[in-house]
Amino acid sequence: VTKPETYRPQYHFSPKAHWMNDPNGMVYWKGTYHLFFQYYPDGTTWGPMHWGHATSKDMVRWQEQPIALYPDSLGWIFSGSAVVDVNNTSGFGKDGQTPMVAIFTHHNSKMEKQKSDKFQYQSLAYSLDEGKTWTKYAGNPVLPNPGIVDFRDPKVRWNEQAKKWIMTLATKDRITFYSSPNLKNWTKESEFGHDLGAHGGVWECPDLFPLDYNGKKAWVLLVSINPGGPNGGSATQYFVGDFNGKTFTPYSKATKWMDYGTDNYAGVTFANTGNRTILMGWMSNWQYANVVPTDPWRSANTVPRTLGLREVNKELFLTSVPVKELDILKGETVPMKNLTVKGEYDLTPKTKNETGLFKLDLTTQNATDFSIVLANEQGNELVIGYDKAANTYYIDRSRSGKVDFEKGFGKRHTAPRLAVDGKISLSLLIDVASVELFADNGLPVMTDIFFPDKPMSKLSIKSTTGISISSLTYTKMASAVQG
Ligand code: FRU
């Protein structure tokens, strides 16, 4: 008899069993999206890292594949990226086969124990069969450690201006950019950030990519930090600026957060997706990832999100919205128009939700206090709302079910509202044990996990001041879990 997997996400990727953290090497190639991930196949807590692997035709329905990269004599396989080397700059391609090249950190635990400060360095592996099997490069490491304790998580992308590969690397309290013509020989170009941004923890898992806005182009630099997030634990900050092929120059000194929830970490973008920029993050937090009450696996990813830029008060901000591919899971809808709620409006008789999987989209006519409450017969409540006085969105999971496995888990999280119009629009994705809030078309965003004692079958809207909702659409979501 198999145990019921109480908290198994149904439309977020999670490994069938064992431990997962950061998404790695995400790349689109020949009709397939590849997701690699930090994986420990011998336990449900963090351990010697491998690269797990999953593939999908649509980023929604994932098939887990055999482990792609195993630890070797140079170390465990930490985070990194993958590219499609279409011009065979690396020379790994043979007989016209285009190589997929993974650029990752080797973490040498023996050297770490010997108190060396050079135990992390960058290495390569390549695949000539579209990601099925991988060969480590005999010349590893390709970027030895210059004496920096935290020297990891290479994100590599072809740069048209420099006509070279650019590696964005987390180097303790800053980002270091390197360039290479062939992925094998790397030259340091510049450093960024030791005197800018949030520094409550070590810098990890960066990404650098261009985005268009109003016919112009700006570069976004993502930097995950642990700890030091706006609502505790690990989180991802970003900078918007210019990158000239060598140096990154931010447009402003403001610290900005990609997601104000506590459960979107180490997110980076897919390579090779043309003019779409798509991110997935690890839907957990180092503060409690190792003790969350799931079994026989730990951790899931966020849904894939399309990134964009929006200007507010002369500042550029990153927006994230769910990819349109998720629409394939849409089921029955309950559409409502012109609803005024003062006190409580119980949607449960209309939604009759037993699965805990749904999407809720609503637009209000006024920006005033209201909340959306998910609940169950056990008295668990997850509250998502807007607080007018503070001008913040919030998710309160303090009474959402199992919270005491870690002292900081059962908290209320907030995100500043940036939009200045009188309307509020919200889109919520609920999948058994996670909530993703996309407010005002993706700015701000909050992602939180939670562990109710029973599925959250009740749904209501509350407002003491009274709220006019011009439209509300509740949509059942189907499961994307593959057999
Ligand atoms: C981020 C991180 C990375 C590292 C990996 C190890 O979550 O700490 O910096 O490469 O996880 O699993």
Automatic annotation (TrEMBL):
GO terms for biological process: sucrose catabolic process. The keyword 4Fe-4S does not apply. PROSITE patterns: GLYCOSYL_HYDROL_F32. Gene3D superfamilies: Exo-inulinase, domain 1 (2.60.120.560), Glycosyl hydrolase domain, family 43 (2.115.10.20). Pfam families: Glyco_hydro_32C, Glyco_hydro_32N. One of its GO terms (cellular component) is cytoplasm. Residues 337-474 form the Glycosyl hydrolase family 32 C-terminal domain. The keyword Hydrolase applies. Keywords: Glycosidase, Hydrolase, Signal. Residues 12-317 form the Glycosyl hydrolase family 32 N-terminal domain. InterPro entries: ConA-like_dom_sf (IPR013320), Glyco_hydro_32 (IPR001362), Glyco_hydro_32_AS (IPR018053), Glyco_hydro_32_C (IPR013189), Glyco_hydro_32_N (IPR013148), Glyco_hydro_beta-prop_sf (IPR023296). GO terms for molecular function: sucrose alpha-glucosidase activity. Belongs to the glycosyl hydrolase 32 family. PANTHER family: EXOINULINASE INUD (AFU_ORTHOLOGUE AFUA_5G00480). This is Glycosyl hydrolase family 32 domain protein. It comes from Spirosoma linguale (strain ATCC 33905 / DSM 74 / LMG 10896 / Claus 1).
